[in-house]
Amino acid sequence: MTFTVAIDGPAAAGKGTISKAVAAHFGFAHLDTGLLYRAVGAKVLAGGDPVVAAKALTPADMEGDLRTPEVAQAASRVAVLPDVRAALVAFQRSFAVQDGGAVLDGRDIGTVICPEAQVKLFVTASADVRAERRFLELSEKGLSDTREQVLADVVARDKRDSERAEAPLKPAADAVIIDTSDLSIAEAVARAVQEIENRR
Ligand code: CDP
Ligand code: CDP
């Protein structure tokens, strides 16, 4: 049985947290597609060519610490390139239709990668709330970015992701919007689980 859950939204909205929780709840596989773009971004920071890197990506490239602000910005810069996106489509689509169900989170899952997904969620929150969440995560990791830098980074990345010509960040016409600004993680996960239950 295949069953695809597409979870899109802007930076630090809670996509990954919700995806992991619903994957565990339903026994679905989970793919954080942002890691694909982060891995390509990291290769470019190390001097590589983005299209060559995207075509040659292996699971080993997704290991290591890709969750830094520098890698996030590099990811969103390579993510505007149509040839980079094209090189990553087949892997994501085959992951989505594996037997047993799959959750994919990213920016274009419901619109481009899996327009046939059974469930599409667009997880969002105000920029201030998202920047504060990301700031707390980065300070726990010992990174010294200020609140202002983190907010500016998140806003710049959202703008680049939303305004690009290829696969821009936007809710699919049939996506359910979940605004997590005033939701705890447990409340946000419960909303997502309910939406999936409704369509199973
Ligand atoms: O994957 P995405 O960048 O959308 O966000 P995330 O990494 O799942 O979440 C960013 C941070 O917000 C994490 O530290 C979460 O614990 C926190 N958070 C959340 O995900 N949902 C809430 N309702 C409240 C906080
Ligand atoms: O966790 P966070 O939401 O901050 O970022 P991410 O999901 O790891 O994505 C990093 C960057 O990769 C995004 O800012 C996008 O530019 C790009 N991306 C994309 O274009 N399409 C996807 N399906 C996933 C990520």
General description of the model:
It is a single chain. The protein is an alpha/beta fold and 200 residues long. It has a single domain (4-199), classed as Rossmann fold, CATH 3.40.50.300. 53% of the residues lie in helices and 12% in strands. The chain has a five-stranded parallel β-sheet, sandwiched between helices. Helix 1 crosses helix 9, helix 4 (69-78) packs parallel to helix 8 and helix 7 packs across helix 8 (147-163). The longest helix has 17 residues, at 147-163. It is globular and about 45 Å long. The structure holds cytidine-5'-diphosphate (2 copies).
Provide a compact summary of the structure.
Its EC number is 2.7.4.25. This protein is an alpha/beta fold and 200 residues long.
Low-confidence stretches: none
Portion of residues in beta strands equals: 5-15%
CATH architecture: 3-Layer(aba) Sandwich
CATH fold category name: Rossmann fold
Layout of strands and helices, then pairs:
Blueprint: E1 4-8, H1 15-26, E2 29-32, H2 34-45, H3 50-55, H4 69-78, H5 82-96, E3 102-106, H6 109-113, E4 119-124, H7 127-140, H8 147-163, E5 176-179, H9 185-199
Parallel strand pairs: 1-3, 1-4, 2-3, 4-5
This protein binds cytidine-5'-diphosphate (2 copies).
EC number: 2.7.4.25
Pfam families: Cytidylate_kin (PF02224)
Protein name: Cytidylate kinase
